[in-house]
């Protein structure tokens, strides 16, 4: 959020795990003091469980998003996430149950379909069920993250709906994020993989939208931000778990730098935050 994102989401959390009062699941819902414009994304396939989970959510979230696009086999094999693209009636029932229980807007994140484009019919069904907005990833579930996102299909959904539509897919740079927004005519762009190790993509996209050139991020700023992220992770996860979680993030922050491969090896050998900071400082 500090780098220009207008809105952010929690990690995807299981509605069923929330009803089981699973401690690790509730940990995913923690936010830092002062954070605003945060939505919670949940997944499930049972309307009554979705409603029950929403009733158990802590306050402070600005919206509730139901994931209907995750392609991970461990999710789809349970009829959740992207598997809902094969059952629009159930997807609509989930939205109706959530809207009835929630005191904040309910949205949904979807794909174009399971293995072919059925996005317009599916999105219209969610709109009729009461969804306040839809995010469309321009790939089918079967595509996973391969190939190119179909921006034309996203634009067709935007033209068919009355509610806001957010475009998602291949927004891997400020230039591409702005191009996706303009090409589809959508109300916003969701950036996912493009933000890994590059939180500046949001301020860059905002600059592009305003007709300005995104600034180059100095290497020293990248490294200092990586350390700040590490310290925040230690505060959030604790100093035992944080270094394990941060190995991949520090690799992303330093990707493309000279000797970045050697740094990645060094980060993977670290077991404490102090050792990780030493690798950065020595670089």
Structure description:
With 283 residues, the chain is α/β, with parallel strands linked by helices. It has two domains: 8-209, Alpha-Beta Barrel (TIM Barrel); 219-282, Non-ribosomal Peptide Synthetase Peptidyl Carrier Protein, Chain A (Orthogonal Bundle), CATH 1.10.1200. It contains 13 helices and eight strands. It has helices spanning 15-19, 23-27, 47-56, 73-76, 88-101, 119-129, 151-160, 174-184, 201-209, 219-237, 242-253, 260-269, 273-282, and strands at residues 8-9, 13-14, 38-43, 63-68, 106-110, 133-137, 165-168, 188-190. Strands 1, 2, 3, 4, 5, 6, 7 and 8 form an eight-stranded parallel β-sheet that branches. Strand 7 (165-168), helix 8 (174-184) and strand 8 (188-190) form a beta-alpha-beta unit. The longest helix is centred in the C-terminal third of the chain and has 19 residues, at 219-237. The radius of gyration is 20 Å and the shape is globular.
The CATH homologous superfamily of the largest domain is called: Aldolase class I
Helix/strand order, N-terminal first: EEHHEHEHHEHEHEHEHHHHH
Give the C-level CATH assignment of the largest domain: Alpha Beta
Helix tally equals 13
Give the C-alpha Rg: 20 Å
Structural class assignment: alpha/beta
- The overall pLDDT average reads 95
User: What is the annotated CATH architecture of the largest domain?
Assistant: Alpha-Beta Barrel
How many strand elements? Answer: 8
Count of the separate structural domains: 2
Main β sheet profile:
8 strands, parallel
User: Could you name the CATH topology of the largest domain?
Assistant: TIM Barrel
Q: Hey, roughly how much beta strand do the residues contain?
A: 5-15%
| Low-confidence sequence ranges | none
Question: What is the CA–CA distance across the termini?
Answer: 28 Å
